[in-house]
Amino acid sequence: MPVVIFEDEEKSVEVEAGTSIQDANDKADANIPFGCTQGECGTCLIEVLSGMENLTPITEDEDMTLSAEEKAANYRLACQCKITGGEIKIQPTDEIF
Ligand code: FES
After folding, report:
1. In what side-by-side order are the strands of the sheet with 3-6?
2. Residue nearest to atom 3 of ligand 1 (CA)
3. Looking at the domain that runs over 3-89, which CATH code has it been given?
4. For a pocket test of ligand 1, which of 25, 36, 63, 75 has the largest count of ligand atoms closer than 8 A to its C-beta?
């Protein structure tokens, strides 16, 4: 089963392929903050430390909300992406301006 590792909290959780990172966060009782859950507010910004290839592609809303610098730094919006398999390592992060 796919594994989501919450690096800053030293927690991990196994989930089904296709599970949203928001649902994985809830299952692990991890601390990623959420706001709009629509890809618009940026509250759920995460840094993908490894396993970007195991996440669904960037959504149209993410593309509009994330800056070019954030995309280049492997940042995603946790409310928008889902794990497709394998393992990912993530942590909440602050905006890059
Ligand atoms: S919670 Fe608002 S962008 Fe994810």
Report:
1. 11-14, 3-6, 87-92, 45-50, 75-77
2. 39
3. 3.10.20.30
4. 36
